[in-house]
Amino acid sequence: MRILSFIKDVDLLSRYPPYLQMIARNVDEFHLCHVKGRLKEESMILHYLKIPKIIHFSSFLLALPTALKAFKICREYGIDLIYVLDGSYYELSGLLTSKLSGIPFVLRLRTNEVRLRSILYKNPVKRVLSNFMTRLAVTNAKRVICLNHELRELVLKWGVKSSNVAIIYHGVDVDRFKPKRVKKPYSEIVLFVGGISSPKGIYVLLKVAEMLKDIHFLLVGPISIKMYEIPNNVHYLGLKPHSDMPKYYNMCDILVLPSYVEAFGDVILEAFATGKPVIASKVGEIPWIVTSKFGWLVEPGNTLQLKEAILDAFLDENRLKAMGQAARKYVNENFKWESYVEKMIENLKSITKCLKH
């Protein structure tokens, strides 16, 4: 099975869980088109698409030349299937390449882009156009693979047959993400991992940090907003390679994810695997993953609830450790990468088999 996929910046592969690499290691060939970056990845055949940088700013403008070049790659390498991630650029690139080549595509929905755009996009025309593009891609995909039940329900409302929709959770490398002793710079540490942005609830977290001056907050991830006044107990550590993240999970006492929109939360699994409880918003699939055995749930945007949950977490050190141990066991039993790969490959192969018959 030969698969073609897209990513804008190939360097992003080093910052996120290996959900693409895990597929690539289990198929005959995995071709990845990109317009930025020069990362070496042995599991993939990388194709740098030389496209003028002047149109990189627009997902819609960038998708057409991407699809034209991807079409040539499909013909040259005998691609069987196109695998597309969510987001306007990927959806449109996959749809156009599929229409040009006649090769079916699979769409992987990782987050509720429709809800996210209602927060991020101030321009209503851009929001409507992007949502239309997502719906068009979804309804033309041979199969839609969702990261949670909310996304599945959205897809079904758009008229996709239930037999063409699957829910597949991500996994975590429990051998890499595991408890180990590291030097702690502070006695009580809360960790945040993710984009430093409004949808991730960063402003709520900063307000809470200002109230809890004796607790230190470590932030890891890319910044997409302006943070003017940061409390002295908040420490931005910048972007870190995914391979370095076990150190930071082990450095903290608890992970906090106060998002307004979140499909699943890979960082939750990583925290659990390293034996750390989690405080997270009641959004997406999180309420089905974070139970009282492993952490706390709060309403998105509720500063008081988040503050009280953090204070409650630090009341009993032994309880916190016991919750972390239970979380580690839970991940070991339910969220290994092997399960993700098995289900993904099974879904992808079933499509190519149907086409041959």
Short description:
The chain contains 13 helices and 13 strands. The chain is an alpha/beta fold. Strand 6 (143-146), helix 6 (149-157) and strand 7 (165-167) form a beta-alpha-beta unit.
Structure description:
There is one protein chain. With 357 residues, the protein is an alpha/beta fold. It folds into two domains: 2-171 and 337-356, 3-Layer(aba) Sandwich (Rossmann fold); 189-334, Rossmann fold. 42% of the residues lie in helices and 17% in strands. The protein has helices spanning 19-24, 59-77, 88-101, 113-120, 124-140, 149-157, 202-211, 245-251, 266-273, 286-289, 303-313, 317-334, 337-356; strands at 2-6, 29-34, 45-48, 81-85, 105-109, 143-146, 165-167, 189-193, 216-220, 234-238, 254-257, 278-281, 295-298. It has a seven-stranded parallel beta sheet, with helices on both faces. It has a six-stranded parallel beta sheet with strand order 10-9-8-11-12-13, with helices on both faces. The longest helix is centred in the last third of the chain and has 20 residues, at 337-356. It is globular and about 60 Å long.
